[in-house]
Design a protein that fits this description.
With 449 residues, the protein is α/β, with parallel strands linked by helices. 27% of the residues lie in helices and 19% in strands. The strands form five sheets. Strands 9-10-8-7-11-5-12-20-6-21 form a ten-stranded mixed β-sheet, sandwiched between helices.
Amino acid sequence: MKNKMIGSIIGIGVLWLGSLACHGQVSHLATLTEPRTGNVIFLHPDGTSVSHWTAARMAIAGPDGMINWDRLPFLAVYRGHMKTALAASSHGGATTHAYGIKVDRDSYGMDRDQPLTALSGKPMSIMHEALAAGLAVGVVNSGNIDEPGTGVFLASTTDRKSGQEIAEKVILSGAHVILSGGERWLLPKGVEGRHGEGQRTDGKDLIAEARTRGYAVVFNRAELAALPEDTRRVLGVFAHHHSFHDETEESLRDKGLPLYAADAPTIGEMTAAALAVLSRQGQHFLLVAEEEGTDNFGNVNNAAGTIEALRRADAAYGVARDYVRHHPDTLLLTAADSDASGLQVIAFTPDLADKPLAKTTLNGAPLDGRDGTASLPFLASPDQFGKRLPFGIAWTGFEDGAGGILARAEGANAQALRSGSCDNSDIYRLMYLTLFGRPADAGSNGTKR
């Protein structure tokens, strides 16, 4: 009762966000006095646990070094259970981020097959609510346009696999920036695009539709970089499906395929372009950016692909952190909704650096080196003694697990994470507070869970 009383004292400039039961859910955010209203950048490197970032640190900066992810000053343990499962699916977890409500694990912008009322009491996602309030919004994804980490912020469906329906809703959403792969869902079947043949069965050309709605349309890194400085809406279509090839190391080697398409922009490059366009709109903005390769490479147990995806995600943090430094009214928030395939770093002694790894660890867990199974170990970047120590990557499976995940933040209202614990619905709460200057659940009549 005391917490609820404190939560009602908004008139004197104190907003209580911690330990408050809201709609059957518990917020773990800390107390904020005079919260700031501003921009929100939500970076979602899908499937990344603390173990993933340990591997990234070793590869990028060495075990004694610091990566951009390490430098985000506020953090909390992320608690990501669903209404029907202890571990989130990508589409269920993203739905909670977008609506602030725990849902069935098999949900894409709905509660399985039921429409959602968000924590704010509005029958829409936080991104649609931002659009309705006149704010600017954008989505960036290294994967397909229907990937849920960004897609559920703009589209709802009863079927996660209905890429044709999701793509249309994203294109027609009114978002100022849409950058991703997925050309196959934007063109009619039989129509050849820049990256391959369309697969739509309804005859709709969504790229042409986007142009009629004022979007500049670009198809590769060079065209994105060459956008005019007065561009206010942009659709980037950078691959037929994903901008990466999420197969095993052995399969990619047999097919002669790279990890990522050479002419597709990285998540960092897309984030920089998105921030430039959104900053021109003259109002606060919400940008949701997802590196999907961190999840998809993990889910096929491709360690080299996972580490490359982590490098790219960490570079995107660098872009976002630089923006926050120059625009302190911006919240940079990040989390993953699950742990892709239980990656673990396995250390080896220096004398094994030039010897192929075994196929498995002693208990039978698959073990990857730099070129896949039974290959040479990875070498970490130099430590404080100048040594490059060997390591391998072991996997617990092919699934998304609960894992050890951190939410981290920098900039406006980031100190709300200092409580040390963060529910998945708190991602929505903190974004909402920063965009609208008030708690999402103050006086809300949203659906109880």
